[in-house]
Predict the 3D structure of the following.
Amino acid sequence: MIIKKNNELPSDLRYLTGKEFDPDKSGEVFFIQDVYNLKNLAKIPYYITSFLTLITATFFIFTLVQELTKEGKFRNEGVIITFIIFAFMLVMFLLSAKYFNRSKELQKDIASGEKRFGLWITPEYLISNDTNEGFRAVNKKEIEHLDIYRSGRPRLDMVIIHLKNKQVIRIAADWLTGYFRKPEELKSLIESKL
């Protein structure tokens, strides 16, 4: 019942999450923009891991050179240990670099309008697209009732949409423009549009 891919929507609604959708000229489609922070937090682990990778690489090379240049028997324990630390940090750096690049691409797509995140209420469907849960859409006839959920730590206020088949869709009110800490207002708005 929950549609999880944009291309499974009716053809006349597939444009909603892309560049073709103009919220100012949406007509019967009600849209609330997602509060996506365009400041890239992915650069923090990227810079930290790049710095630590540089330090561990330096330490590995220093240990290797020291073992090769000293007189006596070559002891490889120090070299192996420093190489393992360097290899671990290199893997962490590569993972954070991949995440950083994906985040930059997502920011470009959002800034250009290629991708949209938020909540759409059309005459037939309720559609949600956010960076955590992804794309979800449901025919409004399948909605049974709505609840409010407040989590503790970290605090996150949500509207829970209960469907007739006992599935639920969670919409974080705190992530929608104008509804931070206002899940009651979001719930009332959705109920009025149903």
About this structure: The helical segments are 43-69, 77-112, 183-193. DSSP finds three helices and seven strands in the chain. The longest strand covers residues 143-151. The longest helix spans residues 77-112.
